[in-house]
Amino acid sequence: MRIVAAIGGSIIIKDYNYKKFQEYAEILGNLAKEHEIFVVVGGGKPARDYIQIVRDLDCGEAKCDDIGIEVTRINAKLLLLSLEDKAYQKVPHNFQEALEYSASGKIIVMGGTEPAHSTDAVSAILAEYVKADLLINLTSVDGMYNKDPNKYPDAELIEEITADEMLEAIKGKDVKAGTYEFFDMTAIQMIRRSALESIIVNGDNPENLVKAMNGEKIGTKIVSK
């Protein structure tokens, strides 16, 4: 099975702790014995901090995105270091490079690609580009809720949602660099048009990646229609 795993920067670089990279490297390495694995890594707080400096310099949102992309690529390199020879030791800068590097038979790890695309969008486009069987988005929450679980104790997890319903839910949200809080519109549109099987799970526990791949009931499943 060909898998694209999107690991949020808020997960992997949250505490600047090497152990999270090691945990993911071990799980990804084991999965790669039986599956073809592509990974997209986000920028997290370091990216947002650098983006704010660029914004304060009044350089424009495209430049903000550009700096954020560089941070995602640093995070990708850290994961490559953790994976050692299990991964192709170069970060692709675009989808064609990712596909080319995958001919090595090793795990591919990348960050962002170009301005206006969050790493959620990158992972969805990559999944379509390489014809992945499954997209797993590992984020800082258990999935999508009917309202903010951090504010409302009675918030309920949505176990399954259509891409159209997600698009309606995020309509009008801020799309500035570094502000993609949950899932951005481009990612959902890609999921919809490619009928891509997608699951959002909590990445704080890397084992959830395995559970999602095994079809266990976890997180929020996005269906194309």
TrEMBL record:
Positions annotated to bind ATP? G9, S10, G44, R48, T139, Y145, D148
Q: Where is the Aspartate/glutamate/uridylate kinase domain?
A: 1-202
Which terms does the record give in the GO molecular function aspect? Answer: ATP binding; UMP kinase activity
Annotated keywords: ATP-binding, Cytoplasm, Kinase, Nucleotide-binding, Pyrimidine biosynthesis, Transferase
| Job description of the protein | Catalyzes the reversible phosphorylation of UMP to UDP.
Question: Its pathway?
Answer: Pyrimidine metabolism; CTP biosynthesis via de novo pathway; UDP from UMP (UMPK route): step 1/1
State the reactions this protein catalyses. UMP + ATP = UDP + ADP
Q: What is the lineage of its organism?
A: Archaea, Methanobacteriati, Methanobacteriota, Methanomada group, Methanobacteria
**Intracellular or extracellular location(s):** Cytoplasm
Xref: InterPro entries:
AceGlu_kinase-like_sf (IPR036393), Asp/Glu/Uridylate_kinase (IPR001048), Uridylate_kinase (IPR011817), Uridylate_kinase_arch/spir (IPR011818)
Q: What is its EC number?
A: 2.7.4.22
Lineage, top-rank taxon, reads Archaea
Per the similarity annotation, which family is this? Belongs to the UMP kinase family.
- Name the UniProt record assigns to this protein: Uridylate kinase
A GO CC term attached to the entry: cytoplasm
Activity modulation comment: Inhibited by UTP.
Q: Which residues bind UMP?
A: G43, D65, T113, E114, P115, A116, H117, S118, T119
Q: Which GO terms describe its biological process?
A: 'de novo' CTP biosynthetic process; UDP biosynthetic process
Q: How does it assemble?
A: Homohexamer.
